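TODO from last week: model DUF3558 domain-containing protein.
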Amino acid sequence: MRRRATSTARPAAVLLAAIALAGTACSGDDGTSAAGRAADATTSGAASAAPGPGNAPGPGSTAPSPSAPASPRELVFGTAVPTGPRIKVSVTDERTWPQACDLLTDAELKAIVPWGGPVERSPLGPVQPKQAPQNLRYVYCNYAFHNIEGSTDVTSSVEIKQDLFTDQVGTYYTRNKTSAAKRDGFEDYGTRLGMPCYRTGAEIVCQGRYSLVSASGRSPLVPGDTTQAKLAYWCDKVIVQVVRQLAAKLG
């Protein structure tokens, strides 16, 4: 009589734990992502199975070095600390229009993102005014910085845009806000950030004294199941504080 073959199944508890970890991407109270906590658990398990009394090393396994530095997993964010003076602008004198890459100092960004490395500024077009090449002012700027001080990995960023300089800026702001209010992801901040601002998705648009200014950005480190969720998280933690910095100078 032929014996029935039997299969060996992984314990159900192990499978359930693996599924739970793989399907969770929200952040914990300490700002650590579920993926980071899973990695911590794996590392802890590997350490507990290191060679020792009663623990035979597996094939190819090595004991972790106690002097190896732990990779940072917590993202700590700060608040706005304006350090620059209030910017004086004349709508009739283009030379007074601020360069977008001069609106934030390294110290101001460091106050908001203390774990960020050196800031790299990239002016972006268009430039104004086109009719006076000697007075060209870059109205867009991308502020990028390495994710961890001293690292050379992918970068996080903040982008600032100035759309126009006019003494009728309030009229344009109201018109744009009315249009934006019809779209998903709209939020009206009123003047809570230091100047009139509203949000659409992960971008915040504000009315300065003589210009419309907007701020957005991104980071691959923040938690979120989707790109939009990551952008929204970065906006909540960083861009809101960036706008507070700008309001002290442009509001």
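Done. The helical segments are 12-22, 34-48, 106-112, 169-180, 227-250.
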